[in-house]
Amino acid sequence: MKFKFIAAAALLFSLNFSRQSQAQTISKEELTFLTSEWKGERFPDGRPKVSDDLIRRAKEIAIEEAWVVLQNEGYNCQFDGNWKMIHQDVTVAGRALTAQFMPSRPDIEKNIKERGAKNGRIGNTNSWPIDQLSKGDVYVADGFGKITQGTLIGDNLGNSIFAKTGNGVVFDASSRDLEGLSKIEGFNAFVRDWDPSYLKDVVLTGLNTPIRIGRAIVLPGDLVLAKREGVIFIPAHLVEKVVITAEFIALRDKFGILMLKEGKYTPGQIDSQWSDKLKEDFLKWLDKNPKEIPMKRSELDEYMKKRTW
Predict the structure, then answer these.
(1) Which member of 119, 158, 206, 261 lies 3.0 to 4.6 Å from 100 by CB, making a disulfide possible if both were Cys?
(2) pLDDT value at residue 102
(3) The predicted structure's pLDDT at residue 305
(4) What is the DSSP string of 138-178?
């Protein structure tokens, strides 16, 4: 009984109904607590603000390389696959702004919409998270996998999202207007399916809260990286480590493939612990090919001091 009381009290403390969002959200203080490993800049709402430079660099790394780094750090629930997308060759990378939707019921939807109207909200609740978006954000929504009448956006909202963020969306739900959305140059949507129906019996219940996307957990401010293989959500405090490690692995692999093609080293030498001679040749190759290095050379040198090759 005592445990239930404590749990209920904690829930009431951590969750409140924000005047800004008109949907259940956690406070800035609670979000800062949940993402306390992040020591950098934050948005006014408390979300970690991963740098634009890291977002740009993250677009070039492979999902598999990011996944390995996260696994090594003990983050085992950050990836989910089996998506449909508009373009297979348009990567989505940015900071997560999360939204949670649930099956609607008249009393809840009435109360949420009435309060929203008093605070200037117009339209259905699936458009409300769009008002919170800023450049570099990715609208990530848990739509409980609903397909028919689970279409969170069409081409009108898609254009609004892209205008605000320059980015795409990740929905554990469906979308409509595939033809119209495909005309938004640079935009991509990762969804469970496409459906011509309108959104129905769905209401926004959480904004800027931790959510579940398939088998992954997503916190506001996580770096979203969505490619053909699937979507990975990188905790903000690990983004720099994931990016530079993935960049190094890609650089190492590029050099290794070149050595194999030239017949200078065997596959066994490349795929095992590198010898001092191999490391030396790699460093010489880096000196001769500075344009191949995606990070600052000083960053790479510092990273290699700690690398166990």
Answers:
(1) 206
(2) 97
(3) 86
(4) EEEEE-TT--TT-B---HHHHHHHHHHHSS-EEEESEE--H
**Whole-number pLDDT of residue 22:** 52
Q: In angstroms, what CA-CA distances link 37 with 33, 40, 208, 225?
A: 9, 9, 18, 20
Q: Output DSSP code: residue 127.
A: G
Closest CA to 133 of 220, 202, 211: 220
**Structural contact between residues 243 and 58, judged by C-beta atoms closer than 8 angstroms:** yes
pLDDT of residue 23: 62
Below-50 pLDDT ranges, the chain: 1-21
In this structure, what token pair is assigned to residue 125? 């609740």
Q: What are the residues facing 24 on neighbouring strands?
A: 17, 206
Q: How far is CA 291 from CA 133, 140, 284, in A?
A: 35, 35, 14
Q: What is the pLDDT of residue 209?
A: 95
93 within 8 A of 243, measured Cβ to Cβ:
no
Query: Are the CB atoms for 151 and 192 separated by under 8 Å?
Result: no
Spatial contact of 53 and 247, defined as CB atoms under 8 Å apart = no
pLDDT (0 to 100) of residue 120:
83
**Contact partners, residue 35, CB within 8 Å, separation at least 6:** 46, 47, 48, 219, 220, 221, 235, 236, 237
275/278 Cα distance (integer angstroms)? 5
CA distance 185 to 154: 15
The angle at the Cα of 237, spanning 171 to 234, to the nearest 5 degrees, equals 30
